[in-house]
Design goal:
- The chain has two domains: about 5-70, no CATH class; about 85-285.
- It has eight helices and 18 strands.
- The protein has helices spanning about 5-10, 15-30, 35-45, 65-70, 115-120, 125-130, 170-175, 180-185; strands at about 85-90, 95-100, 105-110, 110-115, 135-140, 145-150, 155-160, 185-195, 195-205, 210-215, 215-220, 230, 240, 245-250, 255-260, 265, 275, 280-285.
- Strands 2, 5, 7, 8, 9, 12, 13, 15 and 17 form a nine-stranded antiparallel β-sheet that branches. Strands 6-14-10-11 form a four-stranded antiparallel β-sheet, with no helix packed on it. Strands 1-18-16 form a three-stranded antiparallel β-sheet, with no helix packed on it.
Amino acid sequence: MTFKESLTTLPQYILPHHPLSRIMGFLTHSKNKAWKNFFINQIIRHYHVNMDESLEQNIDNFACFNDFFTRELKPGIRPIADQPGAIACPADGAVSQCGKITTGNIFQAKGKSYSVIDLLGGSKNQASVFENGNFATIYLSPKDYHRLHMPIAGTLRQMIHIPGRLFSVNGATANSVPRLFARNERVVTIFDTEMGPMALVLVGAIFVASIETVWHGEITPPTSSTIQTWNYSNDAPVLPRGAEMGRFNMGSTIIVLFAKDKMAWPNDLQANKTVKLGQKIGTAQ
C-alpha cells in the first residue's frame, strides 16, 4: 500500500457508505433533463465512454442517468464465445486478479486475501464446493457496460444477499483494505452447470445505488441487516451462456468461482488485463 493509496482509502473508513449511496441513487434516477444530461456528458468526457457501441446514442432519450449507465449495447457488438467448453467473460472491465483458490482463500492483492467462506456468507458447506477451485475477479469502471452475463449456461440453485460496507473497489482500495470483497455488501448467485457448480458474486461499492438480477429485480436497496437466502428448485431460472443475469446501477466488481479441476484460465489472463463481455477467458477441463 502506497502513501497515495492510504490517503485515498483511509477516509472511506469513516464515510457513511449507505446514506451516500442512497443519495447517489436519487440523483442518478432524477429525470431533470438539464441535470441528467450534464451528468451524462461529464462521464462520457471524463471516462472516454464509447457511445458508438450503445444501442441508444442520443442522450436526450435516456430518461435518467441510470438509464444511460445501464445502457444496452448494439446487437452483435459483443459476440459470445461459442466453442465447446468455452467460458465467456461475464462483463466488460479489467481483471483484478485470477487464479487458484488455495487453502480456502482468494488472492486480493499483494499481502492480502480473503476466505471463500466469508465471501459466500459464512457457509462452510457452500465454501467447500469451491475448495482448490478457480476464481476470477473483474472490475467494472464507470466507462464500462454495466450489465452482467452468463459465462456458461446454468440453472440457478441459490441466491444470497449479504449486507456489508460499501468501500470503493478500485485498484487503490483493493491494495489497501483487508478482505475488501468479503466486507462489502454483495449478492451471491450459485448455478449448476455442465462444469459443476459456479458462483457469480456481485460486489457492491460506494455510490452503487443498487444491484439487481433478471429473475428477482432489484435486491438492494433496501439493505437488510441480516443475510437473506433464496433457494430455487421448482421453476428454477435457466440461463444460457451469454444471457443477461444482472446489472450494477453504478460500477463495481463481479467474482466468478468454479470447483476444482473443472476449468482453467489461460496464462495470459492476468491482473490489469482489459477484457470484454463474451470473449473466451477460460476452458473446461
